[in-house]
C-alpha cells in the first residue's frame, strides 16, 4: 500500500482532470497483479484440467481430450444432478422471495428500535456458521418424531412425517433459511429508496391498502426482489455445506459432486469439468437475467 | 505592476472549452469577484489559480513568477471551499494548525498564531470543538481562519457564503470585508450572488460561458453594463427596442410613445436598458398597463405590459398612493439613468 | 407511515420464530446430558461444553479461523484501499472491467474457487500450506474490503483533500493525515465484513485445508460427517456466544449500524 498510495494520493487531486493519467493503474496494479496471478491463472488452469485424462492407476495425464465433457454430456446421471441443482436453487429462490419480501416490508414499517432489533435478528444468522444452521434444521425435523413434524401433524397439515434428511425438501428448507437474510437485505435496500410519503399520497387519492401494495409498493420493490433472487439463486446453486450435510453421498448436487471427485474419487479432471460447467451455467443465467431485469426496470433502477 | 496576473488563460475538457481567453490583472490587496451563473467557468478559473487544474493555454503569474509550474501544495494560497472542507477528524484548533504544521512552524508559535486566527474570526474559546459540533457559520469561520493563518499570498474564496442562511450571510459579508481590509490580503471570490459580489469587491469580473463579459467596479457593472447579459444578470432590468429617428432636424431616440434627444454615436435600431427602480409613472412616456402589483414591504413591484413588451417597475414604499392592477400608466425615465446598446433587444 | 396490522404482525412473528428456531435448537441441544442429539428433557448438563477441552483440534481450528480471518482481511485491505482510490476518483479506460474483476469472487461459486485454488497451489508445491489458505482467503474477501472502502472513498468530499493540499500537505502526509482518516470508517467496516466472510467460509476452504490448517467450519463439517453427537452443537453454541459478545461490544464502542453500512459520520 505504502508506495502506491503515497504517489497516488499526492497526484490524485492535481491530475484528476488528466484523461490518460497513469496514477489509477499504479494504484490498482498490486491488486490487479494479485488477481491475475491467483485468480485468473488458477481458473484457466481448471478449465485446462477439465480436458485432461485420468485413470485409477495412472492419475492425471496432461493431454487434450474431450472424455470428461463427453461423459457429462452423455451420462444421464449428470443431467439429472444438474437439473436437481437448479431445481433446488429455483425453489429456494421462490420461497425466499415469497416470504422475505413481505417480511422486509413489514420490518420497514416498524418503529426505530424494533426495526433495528428485528433486522439484527434476521441478519444475525449470517454470522453463524452454515454448518450449525443446517444442523439445527436436521435437529428440528429429527427423524419421525422431530419437533416440526409433530407440530405439523398436530395442526393436521400433514398426515405422515415429512422426510428431511437425504431429501430435496430438506435441502430447500435449510437453504431457504440460510439464504433468507440476503433476500430481506436486498428488498430492504429497495425499500429505503422508497419515499414514505408515496403511500400516503396513494391513500389520499382513495386507494385501499391492498391496492397500494399491489399498485404502488410492489412495482417499486420488484427490482430489489429480483436482484435478491439473482443472489439467492446463484448462491443456492453453488451451495456446498447444506446439500452435503442433508444430502450426504446419496443426493448430490453440483458442488458436492465436484467435491467428491476432487477429494474422494480423486478424478480431478472430471471434477474440474463439473465445476467449469457450473461456473459457465451460473454466469450465463446471472448475466442473462441481469440484462433482462435491467431492460424491464430501466427507469426504476435509475 | 499586477500582483496576480492571468494571461489569456483557457481550459478545455476534451472538445469542450470551459474557460477561454481569460486575462486579468489583480493588484496587491485588491478584492476581486468572479461573478456568473453556474457553468460559466468561474470555479474552473479559481481551480487553475489554486493549481487543482492545469490551464490548457495561457499563463498565471504571481509577482511575475510563473505559478503553473508550482505544485498546488507549494503555492501558498489560502482557499475557503463552498463546503468549508474542514477536516472532520480534527478540532477547530487542529484544523487551523494544519497548514502551519506542514510549514514546520515551531509548536509555540503555532499555538499563538492559531489562537490569534480563531480570535480574529470571533471563535476564541472554540479551539477544542469538532466541526460537526459547530454551526454552519462557525464552520465557515474556522475555514477562513485556517486559510488566513498561513498568511497566504492570495486568498481564494469559492462560494464561501452560499451555504449560510440569508441573515447570517449578510453579517459574514461585512465581517469578511473588514478582515480582508485589515489584513490587506489579495482576495478572489467566486460567486453567483450579485449582491455578494457588489458588497464585497473592489472589482467584479462578470463571466458567461467561459468568457469575460465585463470587468469593472460594482457601480460600473451595474450602471453601465457592457452587454445584455451583464445588465440581465446584475439585478432586474428592462430592455426596450428603440430606434434613432433622424427625419427631423434634431435626431430623436424613440421607444413607443417615449422619446428623447438622441445621443451621439448611435444610429438605426438600439436597445435601451433601464433599471426598474429608475422608472417612474408620469403623464407622458411609454404607454403601459399594470398586470400585477406585488407588495414587498419597502417597495412595490409592478409587472406591466407596455408598447415595447413586458416591463418591470419598482417604486419605493414612501406612503404615496400607487396605481392599481389594470390601470393604464405612462412610464418615464431620465436619459442619464438608462444605458444604450447598438442593435435590437436581446 | 401506516402501522402493521394484526395479520402482518402474525406473519412477522412466525417468520422470526422460523429464523431463530434452528439456531435456538442447536443451543438447547448443546446442554443435553445424553450422549446423542436430543433436546435436554432430563435436565441441563454442561458435559458437552467440557468435552470441547478434550478435542484440542477444535480449539486449534478456532484459532486458525480467527488468525486467518484477521490476517486475510488485513492483507486484502492493503490491496483494496489503493485499488478503491483508483476506481473511486479516476475515470480511465478499463475502469469498469477492473471493478468487475475485483468483485468477481462474489459471482464465482466458492466450490469453483476451491477447485481452482487446489489445482493451482498443488501444482506450484504450496498445497496444504497456511500461506495458500491465506492467499485464497484474501481473494475471497477482497470484494467486501473493496466495496466498503469504495463507498467511503466515493462519498468523500474531495475538497477536503484539496484544502489539505492547498495548506501544503502532499504525498504520504496527505494520505496518512487526511485521506485515510476520512475513509477509515469504510475501511473498518470492510475489514469486519471481510473477517466474517473468511471466518464462516467452508466451501472454498475445505479444498485447501490440511490437518493443522483446518478452520473451525471445516473441522465441524468433517466431524459431523463421521460422528453424530452433541459436541458440534456445544461448539456452535460457544461460537454463537462469542459472536454475540463481540457484536454487543462492537455496538457499545463503535456502533453496529456504522459497521454494517460502512457509514461515515465524518464525510459529508
Supply database-style keywords.
heterotrimer, B: 346 residues, alpha+beta, Rossmann fold, 6-stranded mixed β-sheet, 5-stranded antiparallel β-sheet, 8 helices, 20 strands, 24% helix, C: 268 residues, mainly alpha, MetI-like fold, 12 helices, 73% helix, 0% strand, globular, disordered C terminus
How do the helices and strands line up, and which of them pair or pack?
The complex is a heterotrimer of chains A (302), B (346) and C (268).
Chain A: H1 2-14, H2 23-49, E1 53-55, E2 59-61, H3 67-74, H4 76-108, H5 112-123, H6 130-141, H7 147-154, H8 168-192, H9 197-204, H10 209-237, H11 241-247, H12 254-265, H13 268-296, H14 298-301
Antiparallel strand pairs in A: 1-2
Helix pairs in contact in A: 1-2, 3-4, 4-8, 4-10, 6-8, 6-11, 8-10, 8-11, 9-10, 10-13, 12-13
Chain B: E1 4-13, E2 16-26, E3 31-35, H1 42-50, E4 57-62, E5 65-66, E6 78-80, H2 92-102, H3 107-120, H4 136-148, E7 154-158, H5 166-183, E8 186-191, H6 194-200, E9 203-208, E10 211-216, H7 218-223, H8 228-233, E11 238-245, E12 252-255, E13 258-261, E14 269-274, E15 280-282, E16 286-295, E17 299-306, E18 309-316, E19 328-332, E20 339-342
Parallel strand pairs in B: 3-8, 3-9, 6-7, 7-8
Antiparallel strand pairs in B: 1-2, 1-4, 4-5, 9-10, 11-12, 11-14, 12-13, 14-20, 15-19, 16-17, 16-19, 17-18
Chain C: H1 6-29, H2 47-52, H3 56-89, H4 95-103, H5 110-123, H6 130-155, H7 158-166, H8 171-200, H9 205-208, H10 216-226, H11 231-253, H12 256-261
Report on this model:
The complex is a heterotrimer of chains A (302), B (346) and C (268). Chain A is an all-alpha fold. Chain A has a single domain, classed as MetI-like fold (Orthogonal Bundle). In chain A, 75% of the residues lie in helices and 2% in strands. The model of chain A is unreliable at 1-20 (pLDDT under 50). Chain B has helices at residues 42-50, 92-102, 107-120, 136-148, 166-183, 194-200, 218-223, 228-233, and strands at 4-13, 16-26, 31-35, 57-62, 65-66, 78-80, 154-158, 186-191, 203-208, 211-216, 238-245, 252-255, 258-261, 269-274, 280-282, 286-295, 299-306, 309-316, 328-332, 339-342. Chain C has 268 residues and is mainly alpha-helical. Chain C has a single domain (56-266), classed as MetI-like fold (Orthogonal Bundle). Chain C is 73% helix and 0% strand. Chains in contact: A-B, A-C, B-C. Chains A and C meet through helix 1, helix 2, helix 4, helix 5 and helix 6 of A and helix 1, helix 3, helix 4, helix 5 and helix 6 of C.
Amino acid at each position: 500500500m505504502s508506495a502506491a498510495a503515497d504517489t497516488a494520493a499526492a497526484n490524485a487531486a492535481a491530475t484528476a482532470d488528466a484523461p490518460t493519467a497513469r496514477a489509477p493503474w499504479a494504484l490498482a496494479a498490486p491488486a490487479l497483479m494479485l488477481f491475475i496471478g491467483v485468480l485468473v491463472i488458477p481458473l484457466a488452469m481448471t478449465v485446462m484440467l477439465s480436458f485432461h485424462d485420468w485413470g485409477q492407476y495412472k492419475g492425471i495425464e496432461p493431454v487434450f481430450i474431450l472424455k470428461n465433457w463427453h461423459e457429462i454430456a452423455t451420462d444421464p446421471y449428470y443431467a439429472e444432478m444438474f437439473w436437481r441443482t437448479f431445481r433446488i436453487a429455483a425453489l429456494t429462490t421462490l420461497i425466499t422471495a415469497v416470504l422475505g419480501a413481505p417480511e422486509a416490508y413489514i420490518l420497514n414499517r416498524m418503529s426505530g428500535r424494533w426495526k433495528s432489533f428485528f433486522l439484527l435478528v434476521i441478519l444475525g444468522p449470517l454470522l453463524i456458521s452454515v454448518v450449525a444452521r443446517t444442523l439445527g434444521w436436521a435437529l428440528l425435523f429429527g427423524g419421525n418424531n422431530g419437533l416440526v413434524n409433530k407440530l405439523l401433524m398436530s395442526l393436521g397439515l400433514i398426515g405422515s412425517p415429512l422426510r428431511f434428511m437425504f431429501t430435496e425438501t430438506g435441502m430447500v428448507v435449510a437453504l431457504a433459511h440460510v439464504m433468507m437474510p440476503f433476500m430481506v437485505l436486498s428488498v430492504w435496500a429497495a425499500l429505503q429508496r422508497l419515499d414514505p410519503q408515496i403511500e400516503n399520497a396513494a391513500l389520499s387519492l382513495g386507494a385501499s391498502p391492498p391496492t397500494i401494495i399491489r399498485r404502488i409498493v410492489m412495482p417499486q420493490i420488484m427490482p430489489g426482489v429480483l436482484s435478491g433472487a439473482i443472489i439467492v439463486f446463484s448462491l443456492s446453486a453453488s451451495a456446498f455445506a447444506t446439500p452435503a450435510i442433508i444430502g450426504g453421498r446419496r443426493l448430490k448436487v453440483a458442488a458436492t459432486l465436484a467435491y467428491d471427485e476432487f477429494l474422494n474419487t480423486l478424478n480431478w479432471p472430471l471434477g474440474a469439468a463439473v465445476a467449469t460447467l457450473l461456473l459457465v451455467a451460473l454466469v450465463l443465467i446471472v448475466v442473462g437475467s441481469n440484462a433482462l431485469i435491467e431492460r424491464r426496470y430501466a427507469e426504476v433502477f435509475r | 505592476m499586477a500582483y496576480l496576473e492571468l494571461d489569456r488563460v483557457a481550459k478545455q475538457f476534451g472538445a469542450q472549452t470551459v474557460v477561454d481567453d481569460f486575462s486579468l490583472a489583480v493588484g496587491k490587496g485588491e478584492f476581486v469577484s468572479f461573478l456568473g451563473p453556474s457553468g460559466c467557468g468561474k470555479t474552473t478559473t479559481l481551480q487553475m489559480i489554486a493549481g487543482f487544474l492545469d490551464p490548457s493555454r495561457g499563463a498565471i503569474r504571481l509577482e511575475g513568477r510563473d505559478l503553473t509550474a508550482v505544485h498546488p501544495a507549494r503555492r501558498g494560497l489560502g482557499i475557503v471551499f463552498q463546503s468549508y472542507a474542514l477536516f472532520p477528524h480534527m478540532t477547530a484548533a487542529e484544523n487551523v494548525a494544519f497548514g502551519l504544521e506542514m510549514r514546520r512552524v515551531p509548536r509555540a508559535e503555532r499555538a499563538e498564531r492559531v489562537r490569534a486566527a480563531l480570535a480574529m474570526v470571533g471563535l476564541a474559546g472554540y479551539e477544542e470543538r469538532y466541526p460537526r459540533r459547530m454551526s454552519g457559520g462557525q464552520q465557515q469561520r474556522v475555514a477562513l481562519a485556517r486559510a488566513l493563518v498561513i498568511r497566504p499570498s492570495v486568498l481564494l474564496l469559492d462560494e464561501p457564503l452560499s451555504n449560510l442562511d440569508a441573515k447570517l450571510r449578510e453579517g459574514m459579508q461585512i465581517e469578511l470585508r473588514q478582515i480582508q481590509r485589515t489584513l490587506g490580503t489579495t482576495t478572489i471570490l467566486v460567486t453567483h450572488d450579485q449582491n455578494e459580489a457588489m458588497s464585497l469587491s473592489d472589482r467584479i469580473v462578470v463571466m458567461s460561458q467561459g468568457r469575460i463579459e465585463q470587468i469593472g467596479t460594482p457601480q460600473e457593472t451595474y450602471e453601465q453594463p457592457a452587454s445584455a447579459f451583464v445588465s440581465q444578470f446584475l439585478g432586474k432590468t428592462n430592455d426596450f427596442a428603440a430606434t434613432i429617428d433622424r427625419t427631423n432636424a434634431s435626431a430623436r431616440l424613440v421607444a413607443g410613445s417615449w422619446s428623447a434627444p438622441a445621443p451621439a454615436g448611435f444610429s438605426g435600431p438600439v436597445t435601451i436598458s433601464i433599471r426598474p427602480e429608475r422608472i417612474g409613472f408620469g403623464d407622458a412616456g411609454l404607454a403601459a398597463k399594470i398586470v400585477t402589483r406585488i407588495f414587498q414591504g419597502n417597495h412595490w413591484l409592478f409587472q406591466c405590459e407596455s408598447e415595447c413588451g413586458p416591463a418591470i417597475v419598482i417604486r419605493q414604499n414612501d406612503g404615496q398612493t400607487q396605481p392599481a392592477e389594470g390601470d393604464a400608466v405612462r412610464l418615464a425615465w431620465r436619459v442619464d439613468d438608462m444605458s444604450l446598446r447598438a442593435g435590437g433587444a436581446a | 407511515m401506516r402501522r402493521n396490522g394484526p395479520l402482518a404482525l402474525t406473519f412477522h412473528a412466525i417468520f422470526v420464530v422460523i429464523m431463530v428456531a434452528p439456531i435456538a435448537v442447536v443451543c438447547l441441544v448443546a446442554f443435553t446430558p445424553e450422549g446423542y442429539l436430543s433436546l435436554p428433557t432430563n435436565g441441563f448438563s454442561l458435559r458437552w461444553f467440557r468435552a470441547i477441552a478434550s478435542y484440542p483440534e477444535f480449539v486449534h481450528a478456532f484459532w486458525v479461523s480467527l488468525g486467518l480471518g484477521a490476517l486475510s482481511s488485513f492483507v486484502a485491505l492493503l490491496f483494496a484501499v489503493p485499488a478503491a482510490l483508483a476506481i473511486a476518483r479516476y475515470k480511465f479506460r478499463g475502469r469498469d472491467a477492473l471493478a468487475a474483476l475485483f468483485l468477481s469472487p462474489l459471482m464465482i461459486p466458492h466450490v469453483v474457487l476451491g477447485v481452482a485454488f487446489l489445482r493451482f497451489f498443488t501444482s506450484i508445491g504450496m498445497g496444504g500450506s497456511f500461506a495458500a489458505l491465506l492467499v485464497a482467503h484474501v481473494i475471497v474477501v477482497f470484494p467486501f474490503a473493496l466495496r466498503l472502502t469504495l463507498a467511503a472513498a466515493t462519498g468523500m468530499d474531495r475538497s477536503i483533500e484539496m484544502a489539505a493540499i492547498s495548506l501544503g500537505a502532499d504525498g504520504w502526509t496527505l494520505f496518512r493525515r487526511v485521506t485515510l482518516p476520512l475513509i477509515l470508517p469504510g475501511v473498518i467496516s470492510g475489514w469486519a465484513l471481510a473477517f466474517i466472510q473468511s471466518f464462516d467460509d467452508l466451501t472454498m476452504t475445505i479444498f485447501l485445508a490440511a490437518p493443522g490448517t483446518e478452520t473451525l467450519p471445516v473441522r465441524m463439517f468433517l466431524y459431523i460427517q463421521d460422528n453424530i453427537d452433541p459436541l458440534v452443537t456445544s461448539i456452535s453454541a460457544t461460537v454463537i456466544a462469542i459472536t454475540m459478545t463481540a457484536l454487543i461490544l462492537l455496538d457499545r464502542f463503535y456502533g453496529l449500524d456504522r459497521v454494517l453500512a460502512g457509514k461515515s459520520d465524518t464525510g459529508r
